[in-house]
Amino acid sequence: SQKIEQNSEALNIQEGKTATLTCNYTNYSPAYLQWYRQDPGRGPVFLLLIRENEKEKRKERLKVTFDTTLKQSLFHITASQPADSATYLCALDNFNKFYFGSGTKLNVKP
Amino acid sequence: DTEVTQTPKHLVMGMTNKKSLKCEQHMGHRAMYWYKQKAKKPPELMFVYSYEKLSINESVPSRFSPECPNSSLLNLHLHALQPEDSALYLCASSQDKTNYGYTFGSGTRLTVV
Lengths: 110, 113
Known about the structure:
The complex is a heterodimer of chains A (110) and B (113).
Chain A: E1 3-6, E2 10-14, E3 19-26, E4 32-38, E5 45-51, E6 56-59, E7 62-67, E8 72-77, E9 86-94, E10 97-100, E11 104-109
Chain B: E1 4-7, E2 10-13, E3 18-25, E4 31-37, E5 44-50, E6 53-57, E7 64-70, E8 73-79, E9 87-94, H1 97-100, E10 103-104, E11 108-112
Parallel strand pairs in B: 2-11
Antiparallel strand pairs in B: 1-3, 3-8, 4-5, 4-9, 5-6, 7-8, 9-10, 9-11
């Protein structure tokens, strides 16, 4: 069966550290993978997209890697801040059906 | 305008009621979507509209009826819902999803009593 799994339900880190979130998928062959941020009671907000032929993508303090052999994407937030606290979702497009991973709730402590 | 607007923000309805959720975008996006999200779960795809035509129905019960009156509007008509249908209903749109992803609204929090 097809699955999109994110490493943990919750991740607690100290302000200033780098947060690393993992997204693993099985039985998909995505041409690209996306990461979203979701705050409580709000819709997801698009952050970054990485294609299958790209190893790494950066945007300000965010970095995404994509390993199609391992079927894994890593999402990094450097110099994390309490304002980064939210749920982060990875997502795949599979034949125009867009599926989300289970999400990781990031808590950045001051 | 770079937003997807959903109304109402909150809705409480009885199991015998008929209500509608509304979604609007003025970004010229030609694909629009309905998602359902239960607490502490990821959003689940319900329907996809492409160029105002229903292209994907993820085996959603007929008590949920989508409608796309024009390229800017998407409705979700609700009838005879069950308490387990209580959830956050999210609308999204996209144009160039391979570059800019999807734009989501803030959702309608639906409670069925």
